[in-house]
């Protein structure tokens, strides 16, 4: 049975040997079959599964990434925030490596992520760096910020998020459609917008709030920096007053 292999994998993760832990899990599939590994992952702690999935390597296939179910993956991915990665690069990489694997249904994975507590925040983290383009796509069906929608192309207004589930016809531009299957944020945004509109509505609302807070923080930092420079300018300069005094005394 797979129990000894699971225990071995957990011990290896505790010891910091992530590659060894992944090998131990992969050995289950090799000796007992893929279904045995899938079943075993149901009993594998989500935090340990995350530790393995985080170590994705685009240059090689991971058996765990290839077999993890949407439900198992969702339970793990929401724990990513514990790592405190402000860039969210690891989050984007591991989501892309799993949901866009061959034969997978990315929308199913996105749905399951949203179903887990903290799932919406994980999706917002994934899209945060692209917030202006996600917003633009929502309004104008294009990611091109220099292309502004007209009355015929605009699909929704900022205050009309409640009607997203009634508006499912794609009007994406030819340029966007050509780049859509990027196995990255564009494709995720498209899937959320047109296949999971209710989830997209919640994600977009959170994304707006988070991005607004980010801009406010940036502006505050810039103001503080400006005040520091102004204070520096107002501070009395060292003009070697002592030398001036000596010059006055010598003149007298």
Automatic annotation (TrEMBL):
Acidic residues bias (residue ranges): 221-233, 241-252
Residue numbers spanned by region Disordered: 218-252
Highest taxon of the lineage: Bacteria
Name of this chain's protein: Uncharacterized protein
């Amino acid at each position: 049975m797979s129990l000894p292999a699971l225990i071995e994998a957990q011990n290896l993760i505790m010891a910091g040997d992530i590659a060894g832990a992944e090998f131990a899990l992969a050995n289950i599939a090799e000796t007992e079959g893929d279904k045995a590994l899938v079943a075993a992952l149901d009993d594998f702690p989500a935090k340990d599964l995350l530790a393995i999935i985080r170590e994705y390597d685009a240059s090689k296939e991971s058996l765990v990434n290839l077999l993890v179910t949407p439900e198992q993956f969702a339970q793990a991915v929401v724990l990513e925030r514990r790592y405190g990665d402000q860039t969210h690069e690891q989050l984007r990489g591991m989501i892309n490596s799993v949901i866009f694997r061959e034969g997978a249904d990315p929308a199913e994975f996105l749905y399951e992520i949203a179903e887990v507590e903290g799932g919406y925040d994980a999706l917002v983290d994934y899209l945060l760096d692209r917030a202006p383009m996600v917003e633009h796509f929502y309004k104008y069906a294009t990611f091109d910020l220099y292309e502004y929608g007209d009355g015929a192309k605009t699909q929704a207004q900022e205050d009309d998020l409640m009607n997203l589930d009634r508006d499912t016809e794609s009007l994406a531009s030819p340029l966007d459609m050509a780049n859509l299957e990027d196995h990255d944020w564009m494709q995720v945004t498209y899937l959320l917008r047109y296949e999971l509109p209710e989830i997209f509505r919640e994600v977009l609302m959170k994304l707006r709030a988070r991005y607004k807070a980010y801009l406010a923080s940036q502006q505050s930092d810039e103001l503080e920096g400006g005040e520091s420079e102004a204070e520096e300018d107002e501070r009395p300069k060292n003009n070697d007053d002592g030398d001036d005094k000596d010059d006055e005394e010598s003149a007298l």
